[in-house]
Design brief:
The complex is a heterodimer of chains A (465) and B (263). Chain A is of the alpha+beta class. Chain A is built from 15 helices and 18 strands. The chains are: A alpha+beta (465), B alpha/beta (263).
């Protein structure tokens, strides 16, 4: 797609619109804005603009569209697949400054806000009203706009679902600069194609989200976790479907292995409450009353013991939860600290096939002579598999990673899984998406992209092409 | 060897509300839990049990619902439990609490070693352990941060003092209070819950104690009274600086200079 070169007139336009303070150009753009959190995707924009209103976004898009200049939208830059990296240069449209809560509607239980609000601030804000925004991706400094763009999931997906399930309405600036509204504060909607749901997860390739209305639910006041030791990983993970069926659905079901726990203990210089078993499930239940969660726990505990669990440990206070979750929260950093570089595969497979997939990934360690670590969401089938570089040289690392990823994604396809559970496709995972989709499906996706963005100026080279 | 661990049921959240009129903690409707500091005492005892096969007993005082923390101690691996519960014990200050516990310990004992948490999260005095030892006439050591050798006659412990650490060998019988973090407390086990569901607990009322004079207990016997409890006033001054980043920076620098943080 031929783009126009960003020139001094374009820069002048942006500076007139947003002021000198909010526009940096070319070499002045900070290094941080040329990449995201993980992965080797890097590119420098011609201009970095901090927009503060829908009107500004609209004018920037209209200008970009008239001039055929690529635009890449960015929030906090916490993505993991290069989604917010401006591969063709052009304008990096930073919405992190559009970070206001606009309305909390207690009757309709909705929260309307700008896309730059951070996930961690949403939780705190709505809890003050006895309300709850359930999606819970690990990266709390991500923006809600970024969460919407990737259809982020997180640990509570087992019970509550993912970001898309909580988006009621969106205000979108189209690549042409037109502003549209999709959805509304309605619980049901059978009015034409579900464009709002299409925008969620489109990774900034179809339109720019400038306002969102989120669905909230009453805050569950009671919470309890069960840490369940098993003799081995397979017996732990194969118990999950039975646990989910046996009682009220757990909020989260995580699996963890002894070696990752030991790494976290070393990293944090603090002991985990138990490290005697090879594998663990961590189940969390929440509810409106103590009786409700006690019943759920009782039933889950019995199911686990029947399935061969060594015991079931109960974590029912803030201190106990903290001792478990602080370690759980440190897993990623602990694994990172144990190696020189790593890359991650975020596949999702049917719940019944999680054990097969994790055990397969373990076996790849021998085949490719590389260290592989995993932990994650056993309850929703979304796995985070980390391939560690250790002391491999650049060429060997690239080769090994490619071969390992090829095997992982092929296995996910065989198990009828999907390429990404929650991180998205961005740039880094595009080859794997291409492989996993049939040509007619890819053609539909390309068709959708060209209807929204005929000039291809929004986030070029991402998701599909 | 016999070890006694003193535990207490406290309000379940750390945000305890205070009734300013009566000066007491608002307990209605607040979930209860084991005092978090007592978990370290329990874990210390459980580690000693693994090394010496000691028999572990927990002792608590409170209304009947405090049975829950005794059951929880069973779920962690404690062998037996004693509950001091009587209306006459109600309203006890620190001195009367430690006296009542000492009477309970005499009835349930003798014990070679008594372990307490450093303090509670509701009363926060950190005095009950030391006073209990005085009532019983046994040596005590507080702020224990590590355990060394243990044999039939004594235990070696390391004590955390403000400017130093002291390692001491303390002869039995004795009492110690342990620091938070001495060990990471284990979680209650569901298997043990099933196994100990029918285990008998010893209930002691006023009439069961050697000294059964009601004037020596509870509010009646307490020489101190809480006159008023109130949250401390907070002095957080907020200043919002406005203007461009450069103007804000200049204003901040000026402010810091004026207040002599910068020279």
């Amino acid at each position: 797609m031929p783009y126009s070169k960003f020139n001094d007139d374009d820069l002048k336009f942006l500076r007139q619109l947003c002021g000198e303070d909010r526009v940096t150009a070319r070499d002045q753009v900070g290094e941080d804005f040329c990449h995201d959190e993980l992965g080797g995707t890097r590119a420098r924009p011609d201009a970095h603009v901090r927009a503060l209103s829908t009107e500004e976004v609209s004018q920037i898009m209209r200008h970009a569209s008239e001039r055929r200049i690529p635009v890449t939208v960015r929030g906090s830059g916490t993505g993991l697949v290069g989604g917010a990296v401006p591969l063709e240069g052009g304008i990096l449209l930073d919405l992190s400054g559009m970070n206001h809560f606009l309305e909390l509607d207690e009757k309709n239980m909705t929260l309307t806000l700008e896309p730059g609000v951070l996930l961690m601030d949403i939780g705190k804000y709505v809890e003050g009203y006895g309300l709850f925004y359930p999606p819970d991706p690990g990266e709390k400094t991500a923006t809600i706009g970024g969460n919407i763009s990737t259809n982020a999931g997180g640990m509570r997906a087992v019970k509550y679902g993912v970001t898309r399930d909580y988006v009621r309405a969106l205000e979108i600036v189209l690549p042409s600069g037109e502003v549209i509204e999709l959805g509304g504060k309605v619980v049901k909607n059978s009015s034409g194609y579900a464009l709002k749901d299409l925008i969620v997860g489109s990774e900034g390739t179809l339109g720019v989200v400038t306002r969102a209305t989120l669905r909230l639910i009453p805050l569950p006041k009671f919470k309890i976790s069960l840490l369940v030791p098993f003799p081995d990983l397979r017996s732990a993970i194969t118990t999950v479907p039975a646990v989910i069926r046996s009682s009220s659905v757990p909020t989260a079901v995580e699996f963890m292995e002894r070696e990752v726990i030991l790494a976290a203990e070393k990293f944090q210089a603090r002991k985990f409450p138990d490290n005697s078993a090879d594998a663990y499930l961590l189940l969390t239940f929440d509810g409106a009353s103590q009786q409700e969660i006690d019943l759920a726990c009782e039933s889950a505990a019995r199911t686990c013991l029947d399935a061969g669990a060594l015991d079931v440990f109960i974590s029912d206070t803030d201190e106990r939860n903290e001792s478990i979750w602080s370690a759980r929260g440190a897993f990623l950093e602990a694994i990172k600290a144990s190696t020189t570089e790593m890359d991650e595969c975020d596949v999702v497979v049917p719940r019944s096939r999680v054990a097969d997939f994790v055990i397969f990934s373990h076996e790849l360690q021998r085949k490719h002579a590389v260290r592989i670590r995993s932990f994650g969401h056993a309850g929703d089938g979304n796995l985070h598999i980390y391939v560690l570089r250790d002391d491999l040289d650049e060429a060997a690392w690239k080769r090994t990673l490619e071969a390992t990823f090829a095997d992982l994604y092929a296995k996910a396809r065989e198990l009828r899984g999907q390429v990404s559970g929650e991180h998205g496709i961005g740039f880094a995972k595009r080859p794997y998406l291409d492989e996993s989709l049939a040509e007619p499906v890819r053609a539909l996706m390309r068709g959708i992209k060209s209807v929204f963005d005929p000039q291809g100026i929004l986030n070029p080279h991402k998701v599909v092409e | 060897m016999n070890i006694l661990i003193c535990i207490k049921q406290v309000p379940g959240t750390s945000q305890v509300e205070i009734d300013e009129k009566t000066g007491t903690l608002k307990r209605d409707g607040v979930a209860a839990k084991m005092n978090p500091f007592d978990l370290y005492a329990l874990e210390t005892a459980l580690r000693l049990k693994e090394r010496t096969s000691a028999a572990l007993t927990v002792l608590t005082m409170g209304p009947p619902q405090c049975e829950k923390v005794v059951r929880e101690a069973f779920m962690m691996g404690v062998d037996s439990g004693v509950i001091l519960s009587d209306r006459a014990f109600g309203g006890a200050d620190v001195l009367m609490t430690s006296y009542t516990l000492s009477e309970g310990a005499r009835r349930a004992g003798p014990f070679d070693l008594i372990i307490c948490g450093k303090q509670t999260t509701d009363g926060d005095t950190a005095q009950v352990g030391a006073e209990l030892a005085e009532w019983l006439g046994i040596p005590h050591v507080v702020n224990v941060k590590a355990i060394g050798e243990i044999d039939e006659r004594a235990i070696t412990v390391t004590v955390d003092l403000p400017d130093s650490e002291v390692t001491e060998r303390i002869p039995f019988p004795c009492l110690m209070t342990v620091e938070k973090g001495i060990f990471e407390p284990r979680l209650p086990s569901y298997r043990r819950k099933l196994a100990t569901a029918d285990r008998e607990i010893t209930w002691l009322a006023l009439a069961d104690l050697n000294d059964s004079d009601p004037k020596h207990y509870g509010l009646n016997g307490s020489p101190t009274q809480v006159k008023r409890i109130f949250p401390p006033e907070s002095h957080i001054e907020r200043i919002t600086l406005e203007g461009s980043p450069a103007e804000q920076a200049a204003a901040l620098a000026k402010l810091l200079e004026e207040r002599k943080f910068l020279q």
